[in-house]
Amino acid sequence: MTKCVVVGMSGGVDSSVAALLLKEQGYDVIGLFMKNWEDDDSDEYCSSRQDFLDAASVADTIGIPIEAVNFAKEYRERVFSYFLREYEAGRTPNPDILCNSEIKFKAFLDHAIQLGADHIATGHYAQVRETNGLFELLKAEDGSKDQSYFLHRLNQAQLSKAMFPLGKLLKSTVRTIAGQHGLCNHAKKDSTGICFIGERPFREFLNRYLPTAHGQMVTPEGQVVGEHIGLSFYTIGQRQGLGIGGIRGQGTEDRRQHEPWFVAGKDIANNRLIVVQGHDHPALLSSRLSALDSHWIGGTAPLVNHPYAAKTRYRQADAPCRIACSGNNCTVEFEQPQWAVTPGQSVVLYDGNICLGGAIIEQGQN
């Protein structure tokens, strides 16, 4: 019997081509458009209405049915509430990671199975491989688009049902395929906003949900150089929006006196934002980090003192490291110091091309 694949279609070119390729491969394909955000859902920031029209147009072009489903309640309970709690605690979460594990590969997967799906598919740039009954998450062939970082919290049950048709393709090839088949969104701009919320002024958006508590911006030595509007609104490594570009630090070398300022830390107890001058200031570099709430795709923790590589943020180059785990906690030591290691973000571990899983960064250490 022909296998049924339900494809998450966002209205973008990637998921559209994923559906097209599966249709051409002979699968029984059903499109599913997810609406997961309803607060201030306007065309200005959250273009879900136009996205659905694009997805429906593509479905019509390639000849598959499409259904719209609303997971706004699940998104708010499982993703957005966590997102706000983390920011309120002064950390910087990555909602796209939780969105994948809780919405795209849980709520969506459950719904797809009810529709009779054998598998689900998305437009992610990643690959799945089964080896001796174990499902592995692999990097995409297009290293500049690889999204395994965002998928590292998937489990064996989720990966066993997942298909990533774009895993071996370059992004340029995907757009070419879309154009050749007359898909309406072949030249559509990629979305870079918060998962399902869209691209919007981030500080203004957070301000609607979190209280502001002004405080001092200080150097590591305690010199007051400015005022912040609330620790929740800043992240480690941030340069823009500090408002202290013309201030010189005391005791710095001449070459540093005109360098830009960066957020280097948060003193939660005293409501102080720690800032430093210079991209390569020692306070921005970490040779090791501690992390919590680890998740390993294969079900077992990585080997102690084995040479691995890790990313502490998306699009970062793989950094050689070694890891030691104790329960759900772990410590990662890097061969070279890493820049702007950020509490709340994820450290994701790789063994060559295989994504092993990861953990939530607690803090970086010099």
Percent of sequence in beta strands: 25-35%
Secondary-structure element string: EHEHEHHEEEHEHHEEEEEEEEEE
Helical fraction:
10-25%
Low confidence ranges: none
Spatial sequence of strands, sheet with the most strands: 12-15-14-13-16-17
Total separate domains: 3
User: Helix count, per DSSP?
Assistant: 7
Termini separation: 58 Å
Q: Count the strands?
A: 17
Q: What is the CATH C-level name of the largest domain?
A: Alpha Beta
Radius of gyration, taken over Cα atoms and rounded to an integer in Å:
22 Å
Structural class: alpha/beta
CATH architecture annotation name of the largest domain: 3-Layer(aba) Sandwich
* CATH-defined superfamily of the largest domain: HUPs
CATH topology name of the largest domain:
Rossmann fold
What is the overall pLDDT average? 91
Task: Categorize the overall geometry.
Answer: globular
Could you give a short account of the major beta sheet?
6 strands, antiparallel, barrel
